[in-house]
Design a protein that fits this description.
The complex is a heterodimer. By secondary structure, chain A is an alpha+beta fold. Chain A has helices at 2-15, 53-61, 79-82, 250-254, 340-350, 365-368, 371-376, 397-403, 483-496, 519-541, 546-552, 559-562, 566-579; strands at residues 26-30, 88-95, 102-109, 114-119, 137-143, 146-152, 157-160, 164-166, 171-179, 183-191, 200-209, 302-307, 310-314, 320-323, 329-332, 355-359, 392-396, 421-423, 427-432, 435-441, 451-455, 460-464, 508-511. Chain A has 13 helices and 23 strands. In chain A, the strands form four sheets. In chain A, strands 1-2-3-4-5-6-9-10-11 form a nine-stranded mixed barrel. A seven-stranded mixed β-sheet of chain A has the order 12-13-14-15-16-17-18. In chain A, strands 19-20-21-22-23 form a five-stranded mixed β-sheet, with no helix packed on it. By secondary structure, chain B is α+β, with helices and mostly antiparallel strands. In chain B, strand 9 (200-209) and strand 10 form a beta hairpin. Classes of the chains: A alpha+beta, B alpha+beta.
């Protein structure tokens, strides 16, 4: 019997998979012996990054004081950069209490107190419309002595913290390799289809440290944004107009580099570049960037849970928000007419409760086209005054005006799609399912009827097309839209949004299209809008015509993110001209 | 006959357990599944081929020669800083020491290409076109050289840190660990940041896949030198595999 026991033990030991034999657990301290200025790079220090011309244009416009904006002060390091900083890191494992399998490997970085989860249980990555976070969504696999980690769903950050941007479409592959007992090498490989021409491969090193006190990790436990520039007008976004950044050459001058030496992108990463340094020219900031803007059409709706009682349905035209509760459903927007059957099925996949209210954020067809079908799924709360069939359809009266027509004329949308309950002023409040729901009209933004819907207890805002991270805003001048109104609306929205602990989540945003967002995406959108508006304004002040402004490409570095810009630029030019 | 094990048998089995558990995979099976493998046969990864350094880090210190005294990131002590401040490339050239920045502790950081081959079953050869240098990594221990034999590339002993266990058909993974001594004093960077004859260089070569079906080696380099450094100097350098040697371009050492 005992022989058999030993034989089994022998078999077990020899069969232990490699996975089980490496542990990364411990407290690790970074050794910043390379790229020693990585945490505070100089303006113009661009060497080593295979950036696109658009990324370079973004960096040329970068003004460090943008970090003083309230929304930016507490922004933590994104996962694609975080391990590059001077970092104290704790790594531990979370195990299933029954099987003792490692469910997740977790890291905690002292800087900004960021916790990251690397799922080891084989779960899939979330769908395209799921929110992005600073730490992204990571899954890990052991490959012998190396932990391979794949990360998606990253927020926009920086490849280098001097304005070289990292897009939110970046994905990252990492390898964690423990060498001996004391050393940890971390390799990161970032692919960014927007701002890199080839993967950015970097590696950094850590040393195991013992007897670490809690104070070591208490450097950024709380961050409270404060007004740093007293008297700065609301809505200002610091940036340099094209060709006017006075600091961009300082770095090369200080270190005796040929002007333009660091502006060559990927070419400068290879040995051949050494002999070309004296002839380097900056890549021309012209040329058409391939638009990688997100596809707008989806065949099947995708449901994302935004809060415990709020869901977003994407892929049915404009995004649809569904709030559930004991009194029934409150739905924001109804998608396109073509997708309404799929949308109805998706809503019923969430809840069989009757839809009591359907709110429209604008009169656009991709938001109201499904009104008849969605309305028919519901039943309004009956009152002595309201005996209507189907759900109540709420909108600002400007929306009804856009959808209807004077008696005797052909309305642009069928009567069955019209709002049944309108509010004429700036705001409408409801109490429903135990929470306050506010419908707030933001005039003259995308159109004159734009409404956001705020679920106060759930802390979710449905913005309609005022905020659409998949493209430049459609500013419909004919329907009362304007660039200044759009920026005002976005700034109003930013005032409303409160990020969660460690700047993750908080007030969640269901945009008109695209994935679930939070404050950071709205902030990036505001910055883009303001910078483009300021550039166009400067061009118009110089007397440039619309065509000249278009040719100057004031949206150059944002085009890979937001796609075609002609209509947007034209709307901005018209708006600026009207203001003058 | 009793089922109980004799004490001697117990010890033998216990020893066998320990041995099996502690023996690297490569040594557990030869390529033919039988005889003990040579280091070449036991290699858990294939490091051979042409590799290009991708200078995404320390760009300013690597792609151009920094100015004298620009030693950012290197944990130099006062003596190290003093020596770095006396860097004189023309003096190095006149002394026939133009290769001071091409010694093993600095060589991997220079922009260039590596050509890695097996010199024999127990010796891995790394050639660098920067400075036309060659390193020999000896497995199983190399004879220690006398002090007079100090060289830019020193004497390197290599061993596989191979992953253990797993099925014989499973992908093999592991690091190459190299320890180099007997170094001729030289520079960690081209602008005269020094290492001394006391320096001991420990390296880990890790092969890993990368995006776009590329294969990479990351070389972690740890320099211990109490004469000039306040702590170990750690860097890691990334090389991408090239399909052939058409871009291989040996160049002589230059002092600056």
């Amino acid at each position: 019997m005992r022989i058999r026991t030993f034989a089994v033990a022998l078999l077990l030991v020899s069969a232990v998979p490699a996975d089980a034999q490496v542990s990364l657990v411990g407290d690790w301290s970074s050794r910043v012996h390379e790229d020693s200025t990585r945490n505070d790079p100089r303006i113009g220090e661009f060497g080593g990054i295979p950036f696109t011309p658009q990324a370079l244009a973004h960096a040329d416009a970068w003004d460090e004081s943008r970090l003083t904006l309230l929304e930016r002060q507490c922004v933590p390091n994104g996962a694609a950069w975080a391990f590059r900083g001077p970092a104290q890191i704790r790594i531990w494992e979370e195990k299933d209490s029954t099987t003792q399998d490692v469910v997740a490997i977790k890291t905690f970085i002292a800087t900004f107190s960021q916790t990251r989860t690397i799922w080891m249980d084989g779960r899939p990555h979330p769908g395209e419309l799921a929110p992005h976070t600073w730490q992204g969504f990571s899954t890990g696999t052991w490959r012998g002595n190396m932990l391979e980690v794949k990360t998606t769903h990253l927020k926009r950050f920086f490849h280098r913290r001097n304005g070289l941007p990292q897009s939110d479409r970046s994905i990252m592959t990492e390898y964690f390799i423990r060498h001996g007992n004391d050393y940890l090498t971390h390799i990161s490989m970032v692919e960014d289809p927007v701002y890199l021409t080839e993967p950015l491969v970097q590696s950094q090193n850590f040393v195991l440290v013992a007897n670490v006190t809690p104070a070591t990790y208490q450097t950024w436990t709380v961050c409270l944004p404060l007004e740093e520039i007293v008297g700065r007008p609301r809505g200002v976004v610091p940036h340099h107009l094209p060709g006017t950044n006075p600091f961009i050459t300082e770095y090369s001058t200080k270190f005796g580099l040929p002007q333009g030496a660091t502006r060559a992108g990927a070419e400068a990463l290879y040995p051949e570049h050494q002999i070309r340094l004296s002839q380097i020219r900056a890549p021309a900031a012209t040329g058409t960037a391939p638009s990688t803007a997100r596809a707008q059409s989806q065949t099947e709706p995708e449901i994302v849970q935004v809060a415990s009682d709020v869901y977003m349905i994407g892929g049915a035209g404009g995004n649809v928000t569904v709030h559930t509760g004991p009194q029934g459903l409150f739905v924001v927007d109804a998608g396109s007419e073509m997708s309404s059957a799929n949308l109805a099925a998706a809503i019923r996949g969430i809840s069989n409760q009757p839809i009591r209210y359907l709110a429209n954020t604008s009169a656009d067809a991709d938001h109201v086209g499904g009104n008849p079908v969605v309305r028919a799924l519901g039943q309004a709360v009956r009152t002595r005054e309201n005996r209507e069939e189907g759900a109540s359809v709420i909108a600002h009266e400007a929306v009804l005006n856009r959808m209807s027509a004077p008696t005797g004329q052909q309305p642009p949308t069928p009567v069955a799609a019209w709002p049944t309950m309108t509010f004429p002023k700036g705001q409408m409040d409801l109490a429903f399912n135990g929470q306050a729901i506010q419908l707030v009209r933001l005039p003259a933004a995308h159109t004159d009827g734009d409404t956001v819907v705020f679920f106060r207890r759930s802390d979710v805002v449905a913005t309609g097309d005022i905020f659409d991270p998949t493209r430049y805003p459609v500013i419909d001048l004919a329907k009362g839209g304007s660039i200044d109104g759009e920026i005002d609306a976005i700034n109003w929205l930013l005032d409303l949004l409160v990020p969660g602990e460690k700047e993750e989540g908080g007030t969640m945003v269901v945009p008109g299209h695209g994935r679930v967002c939070d404050e950071s995406e709205v902030m990036e959108y505001r910055d883009m809008l303001t910078i483009v508006r300021d550039r166009v304004n400067a061009m118009v002040e110089k007397g440039m015509t619309l065509e000249q402004v278009k040719t100057a490409r004031p949206t150059f570095e944002y085009d890979p993110e937001y796609g075609a810009s002609d209509a947007f630029v034209e709307a901005v030019v018209r708006g600026v001209q009207v203001r003058r | 006959m009793s089922n109980a094990l004799e004490p001697r048998a117990t010890c033998a089995i216990a020893a066998l357990v320990v041995l099996v558990a502690a023996t690297p995979l490569g040594a557990q099976r030869g390529q033919d599944g039988g005889q003990a493998a040579t280091p070449r046969q036991a290699a858990p990864v294939d490091l051979t081929g042409y590799w290009v350094s991708v200078v995404s880090e320390d760009w300013r210190y690597r792609m151009v020669t920094p100015t004298k005294g620009d030693t950012g990131g290197v944990p130099l002590n006062a003596e190290g800083r003093r020596v770095a401040g006396e860097w004189d490339p023309s003096r190095d050239a006149a002394a026939g020491e133009a290769c001071r920045a091409y010694g093993a502790p600095g060589l991997m950081r220079l922009p260039g290409r590596l050509h890695i081959t097996w010199e024999d079953d127990r010796t891995l050869k790394i050639e660098a076109d920067a400075g036309t240098q060659a390193r020999l990594l000896h497995f199983g221990g190399a004879a220690p050289a006398a002090a007079a034999d100090r060289a830019w590339q020193g004497i390197s002993n290599a061993a596989w840190d191979a992953a253990q266990g797993g099925a014989a058909s499973a992908p093999r993974w592991g690091s190459l660990r190299v320890v180099t001594r007997q170094l001729r004093p030289g520079y960690l960077r081209k602008n005269g940041v020094p290492y001394s004859e006391q320096a001991v260089l420990t390296e880990y070569f890790d092969l890993h896949p990368g995006p776009l079906d590329a294969t990479w080696i990351t070389i972690t380099t740890i320099v211990n030198d109490s004469k000039y450094l306040t702590q170990e100097f750690i860097t890691s350098t990334d090389f991408r595999k090239e399909s052939n040697g058409t871009k291989w371009s040996p160049t002589p050492c230059t002092p600056n």
